Amino acid sequence: MTSLWNMLNKVNPNLFPNGPGFLISYEKSIGQPKIQITYHTIDKEGSEFSTNSDLKHIEMQIERARTMSPGKFSNNKNRPDCFLKMIKNQLLTKEGCGKDVRHLEFEFVSPAVEYEVGDVLEVLPGQNPTAVDAFIRRCNLDPEVFVTVSPVEVENNLLRSHLNAAKFPIKLKSFVELTMDIASASPRRYLFEVMSIFATAQHEKERLQYFASPEGRDDLYQYNQKERRTVLEVLEDFPSVQMPFEWLVQLVPSLKTRAFSISSSPSAHPNQVHLTVNVVSLTTPFKRKRSGLCSSWLSQLDPQQCTYIPVWFHKGSLPPPPPSLPLILIGPGTGCAPFRGFVEERAIQSAADTTAPVMFFFGCQNKENDFLYKDFWLSHSQNNGVLSEAKGGGFYVAFSRDQQQKVYVQHKMREHSQRLWSLLSEGAAVYVAGSSTKMPSDVLSAFEEIISKESGVPKESAVRWLRALERVGKYHVEAWT
């Protein structure tokens, strides 16, 4: 900004009657929070805000909190579609192998939502109660007070608040639990800038101002993003900072739902939803252990305890195929999740009528450690099952670490290029699911090679052929990080 003022001063000195060296105080440059908190005195005895635990009350709490939150929730996600409870929590990977993948089964505890194979379930994760209490204590907040949160707009240079949610107060602790990601997501740079205003210890103020400056950008990246520091950890590292709740609501990252591919067919499991969840865990450069908020929470739920899980259903990138459509499925790792539902559905359809062939390419590291749903796939690939070669399909597994040379799904595809081309020629649809890193592009390249080789056309023609397949809705990819 200093260089800009100096240059503008050279262009037109009249712009700066007091010279270009003027300073706006840091506090004034930050401005006021864009959030207003209204505190309410509510008679808890007999009021509608009393803490009963029925589903309607929980649903109302979630909707109120998320309606008031400044976070942007897509697809009208304030009110959950329904609630589930866990009935099964099964470890799919070998214990101690370094991976933790779970098969989770849920039952509807509120009116069931109709879904199809290929649909996606979004889960609002619960936060660690210890972390929530620590955040409330650290920020000197009253967990029991009732609040409404509303945006403040600038109109004619006057601050004006929209109290559209004023008649729906909620407990401060509930608001934090349901909308503010205090112990998982890393904060943005602006939080450090605002914290520097409220720091009373000089060394903390200087450190925060440095982090917020262009010169401190790299060090902030190392401290914050690389180490995946949470808001709670940042606040604990700067104990002299006491921020008003308005600023915290504005600056703490929103608690987001997490999306999972549904791994069950509603025809095979009425009133149930199944998920295949990889429990995320990693180690930072400074050897801090980090785990995914939602996957860890789900993995620790006990089916014996009735925990209500708020969820939303929506369409994913994998439309349910008709029984007459031949399928080529590629799903390494937890990418197999939606295809478990596809195979269950096709098996039920085949019991009543003739169905088209299904080829499925699965991949994992080791046969003994992470061969997810091994018995399920093998049972459907034998005795004229929907994945059997006798039915025109097939089930092929790439174990990437069981030999010196790494083998991935694309290698298995090339091994069976003739049969793949035969199914494609019959009008098969391709479904790819799994990690969004290299896998989808490697699989696409393998298809280009297979089509070029088996049909005897140049690579460019194979690329055009695949693009045409995409255009007619027969090449689908659902990938995630």
Automatic annotation (TrEMBL):
Name of the protein this chain belongs to: NADPH-dependent diflavin oxidoreductase 1 isoform X2
PROSITE patterns to which the protein is assigned, alphabetical: FAD_FR
Keyword set includes Cytoplasm: yes
GO cellular component, one term: cytosol
One family name in Pfam for this protein: NAD_binding_1
GO molecular function: flavin adenine dinucleotide binding; FMN binding; oxidoreductase activity
Coiled coil (residue ranges): none
CC cofactor: FAD
Transmembrane regions listed in the UniProt entry: none
Originating species: Ziziphus jujuba (Chinese jujube)
Annotated PANTHER family: NADPH-DEPENDENT DIFLAVIN OXIDOREDUCTASE 1, NITRIC OXIDE SYNTHASE-RELATED
Record keywords, A-Z: Cytoplasm, FAD, Flavoprotein, FMN, NADP, Oxidoreductase
Family matches, as InterPro entries: CysJ-like_FAD-binding (IPR003097), FAD-bd_FR_type (IPR017927), Flavoprot_Pyr_Nucl_cyt_Rdtase (IPR001709), FNR_nucleotide-bd (IPR039261), NADPH_Cyt_P450_Rdtase_alpha (IPR023173), OxRdtase_FAD/NAD-bd (IPR001433), Riboflavin_synthase-like_b-brl (IPR017938)
Chain ranges of the FAD-binding FR-type domain: 79-321
